[in-house]
Design a protein that fits this description.
about 800 residues, seven-stranded mixed beta sheet, three-stranded antiparallel beta sheet, 14 strands, elongated
């Protein structure tokens, strides 16, 4: 039993080992299959050695590729399989990268065996050279030098490191990637340098595939002994000379004699070119020495070599390199900048810890690329770097957000970039918090309203009380700038609260920012909010100690009053329309009921009686006012200017502000308050008709003082209708202007009481004038007799009049 078990295990191991070996051989040679999992373009282009190439797109949506296809006899298929095997086993940065290979026994059309080799997306060198028409002579030579250096490095690797012979180095054996990097391919003849004794030596077996003009003398004669005894690079050094001739002549080599044309070969490269084409194989230059030619010492080659070995450089070299590079960018051809330099810089930033100066170069290169390239290459790099722990990188991104945001897709900004940028709101550095705040102004147009209201406003609410004053001011400004991207309900709920909070800040620019923001977002406030919340918050700013704050306060007040005036016009129009409709309906009802004659007499009687009452009331009112004015203007100083006559109670007296000569800032001009505000004051007693004001007795021991004459020339009162009544003003002890009520209290020898009217005692000249008005509510109420300067008596109009003419309830 044990022997049977051991035999079964051994058999299984042999089968498994055989399967693994077959899989390994299959990976080297290629998979035997009936189909290729690529969508291959029908536009087939001829390539060297019977190959055709076409663009291919994988069916799984991965990276684009190029498919090389070869069909032929048995020898052609054998050479193709050797090339696929060698391309798979040889790995070098300047050798074409193989993705996969496929061996179709009956082909994709059932007409014979076909070999497919799928590589990275490339195009022929001949196509690239034809597209260099816009290059200057210097740019062209620098780019050709960089490309030749790459092919020379690949050949040197094969000859010196791998002891292999390519056998067919020429223009057709070179392809160019999307990054404009030159890659060596065409490995059908690739063989061991000393493999003449092997049963299969592709260099000898497939020598017929190489065209005669590319063969050195020993290769063309088939002198295999000389080839076997020659250095490994002898044949490929000749091939490099042929490649240099074709590249600078911009044409294919047709005859060996054309290699003698040197007029288009750069002088720095000419000596090395001649050594490569030496007639004696042993005297031909080693490709490894060619890389040290002075021809390859130019700015483009130096930049590319540095970036290719970027991981081996120290921090000082990296920083120095990227600081000098922006000055050299102008001399590099635009296609090279876009397709070659840009990917290298991105790779250095993402994987090799490049300094912040490299990011400046990346953003500069990004200004000249199309939107598709920016979205595919630069945007992912910026999103990744925005979450970098390196503060210098994040600061550079924030400083250049005005250049980055216009190129970013809205989905990328809202879903990927903002979550990483928003971490800067919580950074310990105030500088980063402020830069993060400023960057939002460029990102907000591409952010969703949900993100703005759900996440951003929470950060802004905290920043408005930040310890840094400039951050508080900038937060208010940012909020006004992004208001257009917030919803209407959010604006109504947030804006006015935030700006009113800014007005209480002890940092003057924050207060100015709050006033500016209020004015710029006034369209989001209703008339009720402006009158009840905004104006009461703005009015203290008109007397702010800082001139800039005062100016902004008057500006925003003017804006608010304009809105209120428009609202008042609309209300008046609505009231007029409503009243007209009501009168029309009443007139229609009046006529239809047949009551016109009786009602007319009734209305006439009411009008006559009302006129009589009004005449009696007006006479009593004049009598009372004369008695009060006798007390107020007792013993005036002879030099005092006469008081302007008081306008009729039916006329409105607009408010006139007089400039102050004190050190306090000047208020707005009279035209602003009179014309723009347009308030109707209705005389001195307007607004007090519905209040019962008690009498305040003056102290008996205090003498009555005359009114001091105001400084400067007296103002003449204008008596014609419609003019503004200007009253001479006095100054209070603090230097400010005294109101008309203050002058009145000075004449009576007592101080003006506080303007509060809710505590049972109300002061002011309006109360005294009101007590003398016949028919007023204060006169109609019963009041207890109060002693002032004499006994009181009642007149026929039931108004308390002081017997001595000094007033009373």
């Amino acid at each position: 039993v044990s022997s049977c078990v051991l035999w079964c295990v051994w058999t299984w191991l042999k089968k498994r080992r055989f399967g693994m070996a077959m899989n390994f051989l299959s990976s080297l040679v290629g998979r035997a299959t009936s189909t290729v999992p690529y969508a291959i373009d029908a536009n087939q282009r001829a390539d060297w050695g019977g190959w055709t190439m076409a663009d291919a797109q994988p069916r799984d949506g991965s990276e684009p590729a190029t498919a090389f296809r070869k069909r032929g006899n048995a020898e052609d298929i054998r050479a193709a399989k050797n090339g696929a095997k060698r391309l798979r086993t040889v790995r070098h940065p300047n050798v074409l990268r193989l993705i996969d290979s496929y061996d179709l026994e009956n082909g994709d059309d059932g007409q014979g065996p076909v070999v497919y080799v799928v590589t990275e997306r490339v195009k022929t060198l001949r196509e690239v050279l034809r597209s260099m028409k816009d290059f200057t002579a210097k740019q062209r030579n620098e780019y050709l030098a960089w490309g030749l250096k790459q092919i020379t490095a690949a050949v040197s690797f094969l000859n010196n490191d791998c002891n292999l012979v390519h056998g067919n180095v020429c223009m057709d054996a070179v392809v160019v990637t999307e990054k404009l990097e030159w890659k060596l391919h065409g490995f059908d003849l690739l063989s061991d340098a000393k493999g003449s004794n092997l049963p299969e030596w592709p260099l000898q077996d497939f020598a017929w595939m190489v065209q005669k003009q590319y063969k050195p003398a020993e290769f063309a004669k088939g002198d295999w002994d000389t080839i076997h005894s020659s250095p490994p690079w002898a044949i490929d050094a000749w091939g490099l000379g042929c490649l240099i001739q074709e590249v600078f002549a911009q044409s294919q080599l047709n005859r060996t004699e054309e290699l003698r044309r040197t007029q288009h070969i750069p002088q720095a490269l000419l000596p090395d070119y001649q050594r490569l084409l030496a007639s004696t194989p042993s005297k031909r230059m080693n490709p490894s020495r060619l890389t040290n030619s002075p021809f390859f010492n130019n700015s483009l080659v130096d930049i590319m070599v540095f970036l290719e070995n970027f991981a081996l450089r120290d921090d000082f070299e990296k920083d120095t390199f990227f600081k000098k590079l922006p000055g050299q960018v102008e001399s590099i051809p635009p296609p090279v900048l876009k397709n070659t330099l840009l990917p290298l810089v991105i790779n250095a930033l993402e994987y090799n810890n490049a300094p912040a100066s490299a990011l400046n170069l990346l953003l500069k290169l990004g200004q000249d690329v199309d939107e598709q390239t920016y979205a595919a290459k630069i945007s992912p790099c910026i999103v990744k770097l925005s979450g970098s722990p390196e503060r210098s990188i994040r600061i550079t991104i924030l400083l250049h957000m005005d250049k980055i945001a216009p190129h970013m897709d809205a989905k990328v900004v809202d879903g990927e970039l903002y979550p990483k940028i928003s971490t800067g709101f919580l950074d310990q550095s105030g500088y980063i918090r402020e830069l993060t705040l400023k960057s939002i102004a460029f990102l907000a147009p591409k952010m969703k309203e949900k993100t703005l209201t759900g996440s951003l406003l929470k950060h802004l609410a905290k920043l408005q009380v930040d310890a840094e004053p400039s951050i508080r001011a900038n937060t208010t400004i940012l909020l006004s700038n992004i208001a257009q991207y917030l919803g209407k309900s959010t604006c109504e709920r947030v804006l006015l609260n935030a700006f009113c909070r800014a007005l209480k800040d002890n940092f003057p620019p924050s207060r100015s920012a709050g006033l500016l923001s209020m004015g710029s977002t006034a369209k989001y406030y209703t008339a009720d909010e402006i009158a009840q919340r905004a104006l009461p918050a703005v009015s203290p700013m008109m007397v702010d100690k800082v001139q800039e704050v005062r100016k902004e306060a008057f500006k925003v007040t003017k804006v608010f009053f304009g809105i209120l005036q428009e609202n008042a016009k609309k209300l008046d129009e609505a009231d007029a329309a409503s009243s007209m409709e009501k009168k029309t309906s009443e007139s229609s009802s009046f006529i239809s009921n047949g009551e016109g004659q009786g009602s007319a007499s009734t209305l006439l009687g009411w009008a006559v009686s009302s006129f009589s009452n009004l005449k009696t009331s007006k006479a009593n009112d004049v009598s009372s006012l004369e008695k009060i004015s006798t007390v107020k203007l007792q013993d005036p100083a002879p030099t005092e200017p006469k008081e302007a006559p008081r306008p009729d109670s039916t006329a409105s007296a607009p408010l006139t502000l007089h400039p102050s000569t004190s050190t306090a800032p000047a208020g707005p001009p009279a035209s602003l308050m009179d014309e723009d505000i347009g308030m109707d004051h209705g005389g001195d007693d307007a607004g007090w008709d519905d209040m019962d004001i008690p009498i305040l007795e003056p102290p008996p021991s205090r003498p009555i003082k005359p009114i001091a004459p105001p400084p400067g020339p007296a103002r003449k009162a204008q008596s014609n209708a419609g003019s503004t009544a200007k009253v001479g003003t006095a100054r209070n002890p603090s230097g400010g202007m005294k109101s008309e009520e203050d002058q009145l209290w000075d004449q009576l020898g007592m101080s003006a009481p506080t303007p509060s009217i809710n505590r049972g005692g109300t002061a002011g000249a309006q109360g005294m004038r009101r007590s003398a008005r016949p028919g007023s509510m204060g006169a109609m109420k019963k009041a207890e007799p109060q002693k002032k300067l004499g006994a009181t008596r009642k007149t026929s109009s039931d108004v308390p009049i002081d017997r001595d003419g000094e007033g009373g309830r």
